[in-house]
Amino acid sequence: MTTANEAERQEAGPPVKDAEGRLPALVMLAGTLISLSGLAWDIGWHTDVGPDSFFTLPHLFVYSGGAIAGLTSLVMVLRATSAQRRGVEPDPAVGGRAFKVLGVFAAPIGYLIGGIAAASFLVYGLWDEWWHGLYGFDVTIASPPHQGWLNSICMTIMGAVIVFAAAREHRWGRYGFMTALAAFGSYFTITSSALGDINLDSQINWDGIAWVVIPIACVLLGARVLPRGGAVGTGLLNLVVNLVIWNFGNWAVVWYADVQHLALRDFSELGFPVERLILPTAVFVFSVVVELLLRWRDATVWLLGLYGGVGAVVIMWWVTAQFGGGHGPYGDDSSSGLVLTCVAAGVLGALIGMAIWRLGYAMRLANTRRIDASDVAVAA
Amino acid sequence: MTVVGRVIALVCAVLALSIGVAPSAAADPLDYVVHTEHVQVGPYPMTVGFTVWPIRAMQSLDFTFAPDGGIADKSGTVTQIAPDGRSDTDRLSRHPRNRSVWGLDVHSLDASGTWTLRFEIDGSHGAGTGELTIDVLKQPGPPLPLSWAIGLIPLALALGFYVAVWVRTGSPNKRR
To answer: Is the CB of residue A376 less than 8 Å away from at least one CB of chain B?
Structure first.
């Protein structure tokens, strides 16, 4: 289609067997989804029930999911290293291009990022346990250890995104890529909620902007890596992932409280999680529009910027006007605050959309055989 | 025992611990109140209990609000006013682990200084307002800027990773 794609094909290795790398990639993805489900459950638990210790089932989900993804990454790095020592070049479609680490390991980039981030996640989890011993279990997203482990596991999920992007020539690779991207967007959106707890003394609703721009960026990245179906697939899977995890979370909160013989708080609202699905639904509509536009005209850096900016402004304005005015990410619907927020969302959405032109391209190169990315410049 | 058997046993132990341990944090807060204050909310005398005293910024505790005569025929709000004037109003709700009193459970005040709890209660004797001031000591633990510097390392590394990828990939438009 373009010279860039031709270059990619020339650099890509021979086609790999369909099942090659599928099992570890799916196990890694399962780990990230288990962790995300645990996070939704944990948020519901703190909101609607309350008492906490390190040893709760939601925490077990959060941490075991991260550990599963991390251990999978470790195994795959060791496997690639072993293969290289036998004189077999690691297949770049399995976890991405292999990098030399510490002069010893051959680490596929997806598993390398996922593994390092998972180790960081578990270390910050230990620090979080210490923190709660000192401060108690008043839970906020905006605490240093929480931001440490939340951002760490987001990078573990980004590792999974890279792993599946490298295997996108397979159907399971494409679906896994879009699912991992949806999981990343959902986890990172929750992580960004810390902005809502920080008193920035600003008319701009930065918390809401993050909630809008992050899933939009995921849709655009999906479109950039999978030019046909990537946008709408990511938007749809983002909606499905959110539909599943928040309904599961609400159900699990009631079940776990019942098992523990604990009462729900007064004024708990544990019905269908409409509020949690407003933005994913809007982003799904955005993804359909982007998919159609990209079928009409192939992506360019300017088009991705345009779609990101306009999409962010429209969704930001809509959710604030329709659902704003109170606490939460939908923010203040006063006219001056809304205008400033929409402008900031548009600028940020456009810049990130333009950045995705190159970052998405880098992700497409993940399954090429080149060892050093600086070689790309040589090829230019 | 095989390795698989040991893993299964470990998972079962953690599951049992997860299901069994949480109630230790679920005790009746009135059993752990270590300090009380009295506040007159219009016609309603009320006892405010604290499970930790003195209070330190960001350190969580349970608050209990017990008006004389019980809460059955009353409703109202509690407004937390921070030293810098920020305020947050919530409906008075029953404490989840003792439904005979109102309360805030596992809750912290996020800044040191003098906080005000303003109560508005409506009941059979009409409506009333009362305030209680609380001195909150400095937060425990290491300085917050240091903690945040450590906590944001993963985010900084993530941004660094994206920048490195951006720079090393080069422009897609220039590729031939």
So the answer is: yes
| Rounded distance between C-alpha atoms, residue A76 and residue A25, angstroms | 10
B10 interface with A at CB cutoff 8 Å: no
The span from the CA of A68 to the CA of A93, in Å, is 21
Q: How far is CA B128 from CA A40, B43, B77, B118, B132, in A?
A: 39, 6, 11, 11, 14
Per the listing, tokens 């933005």 go with: A279
User: For residue B77, what pLDDT is reported?
Assistant: 95
Rounded CA gap, B61 and B56, in Å?
A: 10
Rounded CA-CA distance A265/B172 in Å is 54
The 10s digit of each residue's pLDDT in A322-350 is: 887 655 556 655 666 888 999 999 999 99
For B96-123, the DSSP string reads: TTEEEEEEEEEE---SSEEEEEEEEEEE
CB proximity list for B30: less than 8 A, separation 6 or greater = B49, B64, B98, B101
State the count of interchain CB pairs (< 8 A) between A and B: 164
Choosing among A116, A135, A195, A352, which should be mutated to test the B contact, i.e. which has the most B CBs within 10 A? A135
Give B176's contacts in chain A (Cβ within 8 Å).
3, 7, 379-380
DSSP one-letter string for A172-209: HHHHHHHHHHHHHHHHHHHHHTHHHHS----SS-HHHH
| Cβ–Cβ under 8 Å, residues A121 and A100 | no
Residues 40-79 of B with CB under 8 A from A: 52, 58-61
Q: Give the nearest chain B residue to A265 (CA atoms).
A: B96
- Cβ atoms of residues A121 and A66 within 8 Å: yes
- Per DSSP, which regions of A110-167 are E strands? none
At A49 the pLDDT is 85
Residue A37 has pLDDT above 60, yes or no: yes
Cβ contact B134:B114 at 8 Å: yes
A53, A265, A358 member nearest B169 (Cβ)? A358
Quote the ipTM score.
0.86
Backbone φ and ψ for B45, nearest 5 degrees, come out as -70, 140
Yes or no, beta carbons of B60 and A301 under 8 Å apart: no
Lowest mean pLDDT among A35-49, A88-102, A118-132: A88-102
Residue B12 token pair? 């079962």
Whether B96 and chain A come into contact, CB under 8 Å, resolves to yes
Query: Given an 8 Å threshold on Cβ–Cβ distance, is B169 in contact with A148?
Result: no
B100, B153, B169: which to substitute to probe chain A, counting the most A Cβ within 10 Å? Answer: B169
Residue of B nearest to A356 (CA): B166
